[in-house]
Each structure stands twice: as C-alpha cells, then as structure tokens.
C-alpha cells in the first residue's frame, strides 16, 4: 500500500476522507473550541496560511476557518491563545521542500507526520528550524529522501523518528547521537551501510534497521541499549557469531535477525530474557543444536533455513504459550516430540531429516492452522487425531514415507485449504468426503498407491479446488462428467493411473484450466472437440492411452503430447511441438503466479504474524508443464 501510493498520484481520496472524518467528528470538537474560541497568534496563523498554499488543493481546507479546525491540524490552547502542536499530512502529494521551511517555524509543534509524500531532500531546510526544540515525533517514512543522512542535531525532545522506506544511504556514525530522548528509530528499507550504529541514546526502545546493507558483526556496543524492547536487524549483510549478551536486554520482546549471514550457535542468553516472545533467526547460517527450553518464553520462533542439527528438544512443542514454530530446512534428526501444546497454531518442521511417526498428541493442538512436515523421513500412519484440529488450513506431509489410509475425518476439516500428501506410501480409497471440502484449493495426493475411483460426485462442494494432483496412483473407474463442476480448477493431473472410459465431453467447460494431464491411463474414444474451448490451456498431456481420432485444433502455444495413442491422427503435431513454446513460457508463469498469488492472499491473514521482519508466506508449489 505504502509503496504503491508513493509511486502514484497523491492520495487525495484519503485526504478527502480525512476531511470528511474531521467534519463529522469535528462538530463536537468545534463546539468545544467555540467555548474558548482560541486563535493562533499572528505568526502561526501566517505560517499555517503559507502551508495552506502548498497543501490546500489536496486538503480542501476551509480558508476562512481557524486553521486549528483543519483536518490533520491539532492545537492546544492556554488562556485565549492557541498554538499548533500536531501536524499530520501523510499522503498529500507534497514535494516542495519550501513547505518544510515554513513548518520549521512552528516552534510549538510536538508531532509532525509527513509520511508518504514526495520529499527528496531535508537537511538543508532544517538548519534554521525553531521547531526542533519541541518536536517529539517526526515521521518522514515513505518519501524519496536520498543521499547520506546529515546531522540530526538539535532535536532535544525527539522520541520517535521514522525515516523508513526512503533511499537514504551511507554509514550512520554520529548523525543520530544527539537525540537524547530517542525511544523509537525506524530506518527500515533504505540503503544504509557500514556497521550497526552504536552511538544512539541509550533511551532507545525500538530499533528497526531491517532492509538495508548494514554489514559486519553484531557489535558488542549494541548491548548498551538496555531499554530495547524491539530489535529488528532483518535483511542486512550481517555476519559472524551473535554475541551471547542478551541478558543486557531485560525488556526485549521482539528480536529479528532473519535474512543475514550470521553463524555460530543460537545464543543461550536468549533463554533468560523472560520478556522475549518472538525470535526470528531464519535464513542465516546458524549451526549446532536448538537449546532445550527455547520456547519457554519465546512464543513465536522462526529458525528456518539454517544449518541446525541434532534432535529437536523434547520440550520444544509443549509450552502452553507456544504459538508458531518454524524449523523448516535445517538438518534436524530424531523424532518429532510428543506432548504438543494446544496453543500452537503453526508447526513447520519440513525439509529436515526427521524420522519416526507423527505424534498422535498433535490432535490436542485444536488451534493448529498450519502443519508442515514435508520432506522428512517420517513413517507410520497419519494419526486420525489430526481431524480434531478443526482450524487446520494447511497440511503438508509430502515427500515422506507415511503409509496406510487417509483418515476419513480429514475430509471433515471445513477450513482446510491445502492438503499435500504427495510422494508417500499411502494407499486405500480417497475418502468421498473430500468431494465436500468447501475451502479446499489444493489437493495433491500424487505418487502414492491410492486405489478406487475418483472421489468427485455431482454434488461436490469443493468448488474452490484449483489444483487436483492424483498422478501416479492406481485409481480406476471413469472420469465422471461431474468433474466439470469443479470450475476453479487450473490443474488436473490424473496421469499414470488406471482410469478407463472416455474423456468427458464437457471437459471444455473449464474457464481457468491450464494444465490437463491424463497420460498413462486406459482412456479410449476421441479427444472431445470441446478441448479447443479451453482458453487458458497451456499443457495437454494425453500420451500412452487408447485414444483415437483427430486432435481438435489448438493454439500453437499449447504444449501437447499424444504419443503412445496408436489411433490418434497426428496432423499438426510436428508444427505444434516445434512451435513457440519458449515465447509463451513467461505468459505461462505469470498466469501461474496470479493463481498462486490468490492462494497466498487467501492464506495471508492466518499466516501473517503481526510485526516487523515478517516473511512467512506459504511456500508455493510452482507449477510447470514438465513437473
Ligand atoms: C468555512 O469556515 C467559515 C468560518 O468558520 C464558515 O462560516 C463557512 O461556512 C465555512 N465554509 C465551508 C464551505 O465549510
Ligand atoms: C516551491 O514553492 C515555492 C514557494 O511556494 C515556489 O516559489 C517554488 O517555485 C516551488 N518550487 C517548485 C519546484 O515547485
Ligand atoms: C503518520 O501517518 C500515517 C498514515 O496515516 C500513519 O500510518 C502513521 O502511523 C503516522 N505516524 C505516526 C508516527 O503516528
Ligand atoms: C553533528 O552534531 C554534533 C553534535 O551537535 C557535532 O558535534 C558534530 O560536529 C556535527 N557533525 C557534523 C558533521 O556536522
Ligand atoms: C518501520 O518501518 C517499516 C517500513 O515503513 C514499517 O513496516 C514498520 O511497521 C515500522 N516499524 C516500526 C516499529 O515503526
Ligand atoms: C562506512 O564504514 C565502513 C566500516 O567502518 C568504512 O570502511 C567506510 O569507509 C565508511 N564509509 C563512509 C562513507 O563513511
Ligand atoms: C530506561 O527505562 C526506564 C523505565 O522506563 C527509565 O527510567 C530509564 O531512564 C530508561 N533508561 C534510559 C537510559 O533512558
Ligand atoms: C555468508 O558467509 C559465508 C562464509 O563466511 C560466505 O561464503 C557466503 O558467501 C556468505 N553469503 C552471503 C549471502 O553473503
Ligand atoms: C538463565 O536461566 C537458567 C534457567 O532458568 C538459570 O539456571 C540460569 O542461572 C540463568 N542465567 C543467568 C545468567 O541468569
Ligand atoms: C448425478 O448425475 C447423474 C447423471 O446425470 C444422475 O443420474 C444422478 O441422479 C445424479 N446424482 C445426484 C446425487 O445428483
Ligand atoms: C511425451 O510423453 C512420452 C510418454 O510420457 C514421453 O516419453 C515423451 O518424452 C513426451 N514427449 C515430449 C515431447 O515431451
Ligand atoms: C506445418 O508447417 C509448415 C510450414 O509452416 C506448413 O507448410 C504445413 O502446412 C504445416 N502442416 C500442417 C499439417 O499444418
């Protein structure tokens, strides 16, 4: 949102909205101002009218009224005289730095919000600036400030400084050292480099340096900031071991070190910071084992994409305050510990070396939304108790050695969006209840040993299903024409099964279908001419069946494989396969990503942790013709 409005026209609708809000809410306020009809002194009135000339057109300010009544302007009054204390002009399309020079003379200003404007330069305007003496909050985020940060001195009361989402660069040495009251500093999403600044006031509570190019080690000097509650160093180029000094941060609540190149072990002192409830250390090179007890205080733990090894500590999943645990893509061995807390809503342990079976006590996690255990060496059965976790939205057990039937109860998980069980040793029928999962978007059961018929009937409720992957099983029977009820389908992959009968003639009614793989079955009859109606079709794989007759004429970018069907009349085949597959590849990908994005959007509410440095989106299955 912010990024968008930076690059688009001034958000005048927001300003209008603010004005309307002001008019609505302002009536009682105006009434109370009328009891003491305080006016600004001449100097401030003049300054405000000067500002008006820059802002007026976007703000619809009423030129004849008291500036204290303009939207985004707050005044205080003593006796009969008023003075401006807060000025909030976010997203008003401002770019002319002379307005800053005017604002600077509002020497009573405590809070100035110029977020989401187009200012390119500041410091030269801030040299004669009486405003500095009282200002407590300065928000210049999402502007177009560039170049090195110059001296920010003279703001003796400044508590909150937000310069995030600009294009500032260079080192930060002493430019911010003269802000003795600073509590919150946000420099996120700029191009700052050099070492992490350690000469800021020790009053600092929130320090956000994410999304820059800060480099070097995490300096011991950082531990001077003993009042820190939030430290976000995510997405920089920090390297080396993390000093074990976190006892110096007795109030730390959130620590984000993600997406750097940090090495060494997880610092033990983190376990003694009792206020710490969120720790993100993902996408680094941490090694060693995960300390026992790490989730005693930390409720949200992300150590994914590191090189951690050893067993998962036996108490990791058990604390009754735990919320999310992500250890994806490490080298963890041993078993998944039993005794799973009911407060957990996300467990991600995929892409490790875990063995043993899925603990039945996972059924206690009635708040569980995401369970990702893919890419391990898990054996045994899928515990039926999983169907007690009614909030499950994503189950990924793919690429393990899980066996047996799918518990029928999984079909009753009404909030399940994705069920990924591909590449296991599962067998038996696909529960017919899968036809009625109204939230289901992705069903991938490929590469198992399922038998029986396709689960879809003409009363199916799975109307959001966009990915149906049943490749490489032993499914038999016919493809029911009711499959056409699944109108959201983008991929149908029924290849390498034992399906018989014809391709339903209504196959051409899908509006979004991009990939149809029916290869390696026992299908017979003609390829329905309605296939030519599939406007989004990119891949049509029909090889190794018993199909006959001519192929309907398809656009030349459709990748078709009908080999191994002796009865097929191959007229245009050569021209098509030698066609412009390459040229259409990008279109194909973008189509897939649009589909994928809508899937992500559906998820993001439940996956998104509020807070900085967030990265967790469900890892998508990228779809390609040849996967
Ligand atoms: C502007 O403010 C003046 C003085 O408060 C008031 O009389 C007038 O009605 C206002 N005009 C509009 C368009 O709101
Ligand atoms: C900025 O505003 C000043 C005073 O209103 C005006 O003289 C100047 O031309 C403006 N500059 C630009 C680049 O618009
Ligand atoms: C500044 O305004 C924006 C947009 O209304 C808001 O999101 C932000 O929180 C404000 N900044 C401060 C420091 O209040
Ligand atoms: C920045 O401000 C500090 C403190 O006021 C001062 O000591 C220093 O010389 C200034 N540096 C520059 C480059 O202006
Ligand atoms: C810091 O700035 C970024 C980018 O503008 C924003 O997303 C984040 O919420 C801010 N964090 C704090 C603590 O102000
Ligand atoms: C930034 O800091 C690094 C490391 O201290 C130093 O090598 C470099 O010269 C500094 N760059 C500037 C522009 O001050
Ligand atoms: C740290 O916080 C405490 C309590 O809010 C406060 O009394 C103290 O002055 C702060 N320390 C610094 C260096 O500002
Ligand atoms: C991370 O550090 C390792 C070892 O110091 C180095 O080989 C690697 O290139 C670094 N990676 C990045 C992305 O900086
Ligand atoms: C850290 O916590 C552990 C366990 O609660 C305790 O035994 C240890 O003494 C603590 N260490 C420090 C330095 O406080
Ligand atoms: C399903 O469709 C078939 C054929 O159109 C019909 O005979 C049958 O009654 C339908 N079943 C249901 C449950 O609607
Ligand atoms: C077509 O499918 C057959 C059998 O699955 C396969 O061997 C062949 O490589 C495929 N041809 C192309 C051009 O992909
Ligand atoms: C295949 O392409 C060649 C050259 O473009 C064309 O002459 C020929 O008629 C085409 N064959 C068919 C069956 O369309």
Structure description:
This protein has 627 residues and is an alpha/beta fold. It folds into three domains: 1-76, no CATH class; 110-287, Alpha-Beta Horseshoe (Leucine-rich repeat, LRR (right-handed beta-alpha superhelix)); 405-627, Leucine-rich repeat, LRR (right-handed beta-alpha superhelix). The strands form six sheets. The protein has a 23-stranded mixed beta sheet that branches. Strands 6-8-10-12-14-16 form a six-stranded parallel beta sheet, with no helix packed on it. The two termini are 34 Å apart. The structure holds 2-acetamido-2-deoxy-beta-D-glucopyranose (NAG) (12 copies). One 2-acetamido-2-deoxy-beta-D-glucopyranose (NAG) binds next to loops. The chain crosses the membrane at residues 591-610.
Q: Which blocks of ≥5 consecutive residues have pLDDT under 50?
A: 1-12, 14-36, 578-627
Mean pLDDT: 86
Q: What proportion strand?
A: 15-25%
Which CATH architecture of the largest domain is right?
Alpha-Beta Horseshoe
* Radius of gyration over all CA atoms, rounded: 30 Å
Distance between the termini: 34 Å
Q: What is the tally of beta strands?
A: 39
Secondary-structure-derived class: alpha/beta
What is the name of the CATH topology of the largest domain? Leucine-rich repeat, LRR (right-handed beta-alpha superhelix)
Number of discrete domains: 3
- The CATH superfamily name of the largest domain is Ribonuclease Inhibitor
CATH class call of the largest domain: Alpha Beta
The amount of helix comes to 10-25%
The hetero compounds bound to this protein are:
2-acetamido-2-deoxy-beta-D-glucopyranose
Our count of helices gives 6
The major pleated sheet works out as: 23 strands, mixed
| Dominant shape | globular
């Amino acid at each position: 949102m912010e990024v968008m409005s930076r690059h688009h026209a001034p958000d005048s609708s927001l300003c209008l909205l603010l004005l309307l809000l002001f008019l609505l809410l302002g009536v009682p306020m105006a009434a109370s101002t009328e009891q003491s009809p305080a006016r600004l002194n001449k100097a401030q009135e003049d300054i405000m009218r000067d500002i008006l000339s820059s802002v007026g057109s976007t703000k619809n300010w009423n030129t004849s009224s008291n500036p204290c009544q303009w939207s985004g302007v707050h005044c205080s009054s003593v006796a009969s005289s008023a003075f401006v204390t807060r000025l909030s002009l976010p997203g008003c399309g401002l770019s002319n730095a002379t307005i800053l020079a005017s604002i600077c003379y509002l020497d009573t200003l405590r809070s100035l919000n110029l977020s989401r404007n187009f200012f390119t330069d500041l410091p030269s305007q801030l040299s004669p600036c009486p405003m500095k003496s009282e200002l407590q909050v300065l928000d210049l985020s999402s502007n177009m400030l560039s170049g090195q940060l110059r001296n920010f001195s003279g703001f003796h009361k400044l508590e909150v400084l937000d310069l995030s989402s600009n294009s500032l660069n260079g080192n930060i040495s002493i430019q911010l050292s003269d802000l003795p009251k600073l509590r919150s500093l946000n420099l996120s999403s700029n191009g700052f480099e050099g070492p992490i600044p350690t000469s800021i006031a020790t009053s600092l509570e929130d320090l956000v340096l994410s999304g820059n190019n800060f480099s070097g080690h995490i300096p011991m000097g950082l531990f001077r900031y003993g009042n820190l509650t939030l430290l976000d160093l995510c997405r920089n180029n920090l390297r080396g071991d993390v000093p074990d000094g976190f006892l110096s941060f007795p109030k730390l609540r959130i620590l984000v070190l993600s997406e750097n190149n940090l090495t060494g072990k997880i610092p033990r002192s983190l376990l003694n910071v009792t206020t710490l409830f969120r720790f993100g250390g993902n996408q680094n090179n941490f090694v060693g084992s995960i300390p026992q007890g790490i989730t005693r205080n930390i409720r949200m733990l992300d150590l994914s994409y590191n090189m951690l090894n050893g067993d998962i500590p036996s108490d990791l999943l058990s604390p009754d305050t735990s919320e999310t645990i992500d250890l994806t893509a490490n080298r963890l061995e041993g078993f998944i510990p039993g005794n799973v807390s009911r407060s957990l809503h996300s467990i991600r342990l995929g892409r490790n070396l875990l063995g043993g079976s899925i603990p039945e006590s996972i059924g206690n996690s009635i708040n569980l939304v995401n369970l990702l255990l893919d890419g391990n060496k898990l054996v045994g059965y899928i515990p039926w108790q999983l169907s007690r976790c009614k909030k499950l939205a994503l189950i990924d057990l793919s690429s393990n050695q899980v066996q047996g039937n799918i518990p029928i109860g999984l079909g009753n998980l009404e909030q399940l969006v994705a069920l990924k069980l591909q590449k296991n040793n599962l067998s038996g029928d696909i529960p017919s209840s899968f036809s009625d999962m109204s939230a289901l978007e992705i069903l991938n059961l490929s590469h198992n040993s399922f038998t029986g018929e396709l689960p879809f009937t003409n009363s199916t409720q799975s109307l959001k299903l966009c990915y149906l992957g049943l490749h490489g099983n032993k499914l038999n029977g016919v493809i029911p024409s009711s499959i056409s009820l699944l109108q959201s389908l983008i991929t149908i992959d029924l290849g390498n099964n034992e399906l018989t009968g014809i391709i339903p003639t209504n196959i051409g009614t899908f509006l979004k279908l991009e990939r149809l793989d029916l290869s390696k079955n026992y299908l017979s009859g003609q390829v329905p001419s309605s296939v030519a109606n599939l406007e989004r079709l990119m891949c049509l794989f029909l090889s190794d069946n018993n199909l006959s007759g001519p192929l309907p004429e398809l656009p030349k970018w459709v990748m078709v494989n009908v080999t191994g069907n002796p009865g097929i009349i191959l007229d245009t085949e050569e021209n098509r396969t030698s066609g412009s597959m390459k040229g259409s590849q990008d279109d194909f990908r973008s189509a897939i990503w649009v589909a994928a994005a809508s899937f992500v959007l559906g998820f993001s509410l439940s996956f998104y942790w509020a807070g900085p440095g967030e990265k967790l989106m469900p890892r998508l299955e990228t779809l390609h013709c040849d996967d």
